[in-house]
Write a structure and sequence with these properties.
The structure is a homodimer of 636-residue chains. Chain A is built from 16 helices and 38 strands. Chain A has 636 residues and is α+β, with helices and mostly antiparallel strands. Chains A and B meet through β11, α2, β15, α3 and α6 of A and β11, α2, β15, α3 and α6 of B.
């Protein structure tokens, strides 16, 4: 069980400096000479000077006639001038001006007398309506500097200037070496203990986006000598080498010692979270980055080191993402000494930005997929509290985020269906949902952190849903309460119900374990209500304290044997092929403050949930009833 | 000389509505089923649901040992617990947790007693350091909605969820048909009267960027029947058809009548400038866009109609560019009734944005290449005056523009050399130059519209350069005046000097024509000074009133026979292979207000011009002397 130690842990900035400033590490002068026609997105390797002028001759800017200005000086309404055969020449836009003419009169300003004679009433100013040679581009003029990423208009400008080929930076070859005994090629049915290699394909896509040429190697098992030999070969054939996983300080983390053996290990261990177990080194003068195996760590580390290295090699600026200043919806704690990258959802209400943190684990890739931005909490901070403002780097444009309708509250699968249906109707509207339980959703409305709360809160006294809670939490707001669905709640149990569970009574005294939902969730309130009706005590239920945040998490806990049962909706049980014992039907509503009803996104949502299409998709999930879907329950 | 009429001229918004809302015009449901590995940048055609959970089994989140939490409850510092052979199992990060264990203890917290025994002093909480199956993604969960452009992290998330292939929108095939008798394929030596086809290649690049599959057709001459037949064939084989040129209302503008004959002409003539002569129609249910031939018009029109059409077909949002609010440096007049797209350079000083308009002709593609943004002056405005603020759509990120050092003033070729050299040293710094003459440059400093003024203003009384002008125009500012170059000014004349011009005296009384620089330019002041010394009158010089704005424009005027001579620098004459008759050596300096000297970009500029590399490149141009280059002339 022998372990290595990290080198001295460095800050992100120190690590970048040591790595990127290492002598000649970013030196790169390989060049492709390519056709201008194929140059979109490539980086100029040298300044581009015009070969021919554009236009390259004096030409007419209008449809009309070319004349000598001298011949027209005396023209006026009172004294029209007639021009004969040799005094004018018909020209269309772009036609060359014959060398003895020096002005163009527009076709509209000419009276045709006969085939050889025209009459005009205004004198022409010399060079009027003529595009002089070089008006746009003069031969030898600089068109593009080196280090310029070529756009469609640049292609047009180069072609106009007679440039049919040019020198661009060759795309640096970046080797990607996935390592690990447990790693397997992408498939749809991985065996227990095997992990699908998604990392190396994320990297190849990033390399492509950042201007490199990815070359992925086959997966290598955790064998020091084998990995070493592949790295040496890759170093030989590539401009940069990346390894995926094995960069930490565990028993089988071979990358740092290999770099030490055959090259120079510059950095190992960086005070960022996620991304700490990154190893940076040089082998035979070429850069190698040992990337951590957890996907979010890898994404953070690749952005920090690979993107900046590629930009430097290509001679282009590594443009940072746009940033906004945001407050936070609740305290976000952070470890002193580490710069923490927190993925967040952003909400813009009345031009105030609020950030809601997503799952923070280095392994939770989905949190990066769902994020609107990244909040970087500095090393010297223990966290951010409401009222403080902090910069958030955006992963979308501000307009895209502003077009998001934020639904916070209880989780229901139909919200995902809704998000997808909306995209088909209006791709400008994004549905952005976060799951914090029904009470959390109403609290978010109160703090102006959401447009809609999804809620199914049973009032034990009245048996009515949601209304009494809304009145209590949002006493001063006018709220539209609109039904989304009725749904079956029940016990999710293993396929075939091997423990023979018939209802909540079976949870007590039979040694069965339960998986609960979090406090404040409608499902938890429903459970407590039903237990009370049956006279059962939570203390007698094994696992009552084990809380998860979604129906799918409950179903997953049962599916994988963590628990024998959990209360959840039918659709979750069905999705994971579990059995389901109905307990109660409940009403799931959307609470929307009046002031948001005029937003386009809200209007489209309300129209969509009332549509037959949406209702039929929901019904096909099972366990839902759409008899009141879209109906206004309350507007007060 | 028969002409067509435009249909009723429509506003941009009306035209977009009529075209994009035409029944089924944007209906598009062609699909590619592709490997997830190749899906970067493609658009999902359907919602993507997870096939397997990630992780798909309970696994260790740490390197350590798996244990049963029950076995550890009594552990404390005082009472360490020893676990034997069957009570623990060594696990690395990612390893599956054996089914009878339910917690992981980190390797650091374990004392190894012997091979079969470990000792711990803290109890393990059930499920600690275990990633539960589905922690990241639960099978059947929605990962991506339809209409989503796939990023590297999305590829990783899909692969983790067992998705190895997916349905994406097929790229719509967009036919590009270049038309015109005078149009030729790209080359470096176009004949007089021939225009290089740059438009169709700009379009194919735009189509690629916007998610379409371009298919360029060969150039077709201006022949109604031939064009018609190609359009019919293209409509048959493509999803969208574009024509380049021939969309106006001239004699040979065949596109609108062809659309009318074989389809429906929906729009012809739009009240935008540039871009007016756009024709929009439908043939056999498929959209056709007749794009104007002037490149800037084409770019504007393609952005307005093609990009939005492609976005609609692909089911994605057509994200508008970011905007900033800017004031203007001087009045920008605009035609009432037309929405005008003015290309501008942007300057950010003390967080105030100022827009400086670039050349406005529809043919001046270079103005689009050099632009930082597009100012759209509304139809109901006659223009913008200083003090007013107007939105500018950005073509770069705000950070890129803020990293620009703006040099306004006299034109000198070495500024382009400087811009390119800077890119090689620091790609983050952009040199953005605009040519308004030396006096204009000092005025721009006064109005805080530039960081540097390039100036060569001769004080006729003292014979000294620049200083007296700076004192007069910027009396309260501390200015660093730094020499860039000395340069030869002289008469640029045709190769071989066929008119035998020997000096300025020859400009009078010999019927020779002259091309002048604009008022306020240092060259103009030099000319007037030299004329005065010789006792010559401007009135006696033919062409004295013909003003152009750069040395290259003077050289070009001579090269193309517009003028017999013009005063300019040696490098311009050399660039166009003209003869040069030296008149005077002058000093060209950079004036920099003290407050900008601390900017990184300015520091790099000053370091660069002092470098041997820069001086040797400048000397190789000829006509320059670098004896004082980089020297501080004045700092007061």
């Amino acid at each position: 069980m022998q372990r290595r130690r990290y080198l001295k842990k460095l800050s992100l900035e120190e690590a970048q400096r040591i790595f990127l400033d290492y002598p000649n590490i970013s030196r790169y002068d390989k060049i492709d000479e390519i056709s201008t026609l194929n140059s979109l997105g490539r980086i100029t390797a040298e300044p581009i000077f015009a070969i021919v002028s554009s236009p390259h001759y004096h030409c007419s800017a209008m449809d009309g006639v070319a004349v000598r200005a001298d011949d027209t000086f005396s023209a006026s309404t009172a004294n029209p001038v007639r021009l004969g055969k040799d005094q004018f020449c018909i020209v269309d836009t772009g036609d060359p001006i014959p060398s003895d003419f020096n002005a163009v009169i527009m076709i509209e300003d000419i009276v045709e007398i006969d085939e050889d004679t025209i009459e005009i009433i205004d004198p022409a100013v010399p060079w009027q309506h003529i595009r002089m040679a070089g008006e746009d581009i003069v031969a030898t003029e600089l068109i593009l500097t080196r280090g310029h990423k070529i756009r469609p208009i640049d292609i047009a400008a180069m072609l106009s200037a007679g440039i049919t080929s040019l020198k661009v930076k060759k795309k640096p070859i970046v080797a990607v070496i996935p390592t690990g005994d447990e790693i397997i090629e992408p498939c749809s049915n991985p065996e227990q203990g095997k992990i699908i290699d998604s990392n190396s394909y994320m990297l190849t896509a990033m390399i492509t986006e950042w201007g490199g040429e990815p070359k992925r190697w086959s997966i290598i098992e955790d064998n020091y000598e084998k990995i070493k030999s592949v790295i040496l070969q890759a170093i030989n054939e590539s401009d940069i080498v990346l390894t995926s996983a094995g960069s930490s300080a565990g028993r089988e983390d071979f990358i740092p010692p290999i770099i030490e053996e055959i090259g120079e290990l510059l950095v190992h261990g960086i005070s960022i979270s996620p991304g700490k177990p990154t190893a940076l080194g040089v082998i035979n003068g070429k850069p190698i980055i040992g990337l951590p195996g957890y996907p979010v760590s890898m994404a953070v580390s690749a952005e920090a080191f690979l993107k900046s290295l590629l930009s430097k090699m290509l001679g282009i600026a590594n443009i940072p993402p746009a940033k906004i200043k945001s407050s936070v919806s609740r305290k976000i704690a952070s470890k002193l000494g580490d710069k923490e990258f927190v993925r967040v959802k952003l909400i813009n209400i009345n031009d105030n930005w609020t950030a809601v943190p997503l799952a923070r684990g280095a392994s939770v890739l989905n949190s990066l997929v769902r994020a609107d931005g990244i909040m970087k909490i500095p090393e010297n901070s223990e966290g951010i509290v409401p009222g403080e403002f902090i910069e958030v780097e955006l992963m979308k444009t501000p307009d895209e985020i502003k077009n998001s309708i934020v639904i916070i509250g209880s989780h229901d699968l139909t919200l995902d269906i809704l998000a997808d249906e909306i995209k088909a109707i209006n791709p400008y509207i994004n549905i952005s949902s976060a799951h914090v339980g029904s009470l959390g959703g109403l609290m978010a409305l109160k703090r102006n952190e959401a447009h809609i709360a999804g809620t199914h809160l049973l009032d034990e006294e009245t048996g009515e849903y949601n209304i009494s809670y809304i009145r209590k939490i949002l006493p001063d707001r006018k709220i539209a309460l609109i039904n989304l669905v009725y749904r079956q709640q029940g016990l999710i149990v293993a396929k075939g119900n091997p423990k023979g569970i018939k209802g909540l009574n079976d949870l007590v005294g039979k040694g069965l374990s339960y998986c609960n939902r979090q406090r404040g969730s409608g499902t938890r309130i429903l459970l407590d209500y039903e237990l009370k009706k049956l006279g059962l005590s939570p203390d007698d239920i094994i696992g009552y304290d084990r809380e998860v945040y979604t129906h799918m998490a409950v179903a997953s806990a049962v599916a994988t044997g963590i628990a024998d049962a959990g209360l959840g909706i039918f659709a979750s049980a069905k999705a994971l092929n579990m059995d389901f014992i109905p307990i109660a039907e409940e009403r799931y509503d959307l609470a929307i403050p009046e002031e948001f009803l005029s937003l386009d996104g809200i209007k489209i949502i309300l129209k969509t949930i009332s549509s037959d299409k949406f209702k039929s998709v929901v019904q096909s999930l099972g366990g839902y009833d759409t008899r009141d879907t879209g109906k206004i329950i309350m507007f007060a």
